[in-house]
Structures are given as C-alpha cells and as structure tokens.
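Explain this fold:

***
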Amino acid sequence: MVIQSEGYASLIEYLSESIVIFNQGHTDGHQPMTIKLFIRYQMVEQMSLLFEQNKFLIPQEKIYIVEEFDQAFDDLSEVLGKNMNNKITESQRTFITDFAGLLKNLFDSQLKPI
C-alpha cells in the first residue's frame, strides 16, 4: 500500500537529503532517549492516531498497517545505521516528528473513501 508508493519513495528521498542532521556529533546531555527509541515512539503515536481516526478498519487491515509501519522503521534503521543508538538532539527530534507525521499522511491519503 504505502511502502510501494511514489509518496513513500519521496519520503525516503527527504530522509536522504536530511541525513546530515543525523551525522552531528553534538548531543543534548539532557536527552536520555536514543534516536531509535524516539522513532519507535513516534511511529506508535502516529499509528495509534491513524487507528483512532479510522475506526472502520478491520483487524486484518490494522495488521497490514502495522507491518507497513514496521517496514518504514526498518528502512529508517538501514539509512541511519549506527546513529540509531545515539542520544537524540532537538533537531533530530523535530525531523523525526515531521517524518512520522508525513508517513501518517501517506496512510491517510490511502484510507480516504473513494
């Protein structure tokens, strides 16, 4: 559904163009959360919001959506590599929040009634 779409390819391109944000050596000493944990948190938040807004989804559709979010997480992990275990910076937090929101928007566009 979403993972094979042109929109998702554009989203990954956006990530690739912004990769410099994740190569920063500076971390906020007050941030106990890693990039990996924050990405997972944002994915769960967006998925929960998607399910709340689309109560008509049947269990099989929800499972498929969870699998697609997992694939997106795996793609992020592959692109970010070893940086996934770094402490998150504020600019990384902002980017990930935006990225997860854009991913949800792709799902929203696929779930709109025709």
Q: What stands out?
A: Residues 42 and 100 are 6 Å apart (CA to CA).
